[in-house]
Design a protein that fits this description.
Layout: H1 2-6, E1 12-16, E2 19-23, E3 28-31, H2 44-55, H3 63-69, H4 84-89, H5 91-100, H6 110-119
């Protein structure tokens, strides 16, 4: 009943080896039967993996901290978890590539920003 009151505006399901509870916006259903893990994959999983891989920053990789924040025992519930070992393994090579490709010229808008900043009157 707590979850029904607290999350009344969304559908949800809680599954445990000791039973389950679900809410469909109308009916709260409970069971003492051990729950079977449902297949909750959907079409957004692939999009999430693409996003996760694209924001992965090898220069900020701290494996011990990552394991503290999300222990490996929970990875089975994360769509992106299958990418983590290869992202970690490739981090050093990506760092070398990033350093090799570092900017040698300012971005195109840099000069416009510098010109605009130069026109701002100095504080009295």
């Amino acid at each position: 009943p707590f979850f029904q009151r607290r999350f009344n505006d969304m559908d949800w399901i809680i599954l445990t080896p000791h039973g389950s509870a679900s809410w469909d916006g109308q009916t709260l259903m409970t069971s003492t039967e051990p729950a079977v893990k449902p297949d909750i994959r959907d079409e957004t999983d692939d999009l999430w993996r693409i996003y996760y891989a694209s924001i992965f920053n090898p220069a900020r990789l701290k494996v011990k901290m990552m394991m503290t924040e999300m222990p490996k025992k929970y990875w089975k519930n994360l769509p992106e978890a299958e990418l983590i070992p290869s992202l970690i393994a490739g981090a050093e090579a990506k760092l070398i590539d990033m350093a090799r490709r570092q900017a040698s010229e300012p971005l195109p808008f840099h000069h416009r920003l510098q010109d605009a900043a130069a026109r701002v009157p100095a504080a009295p």
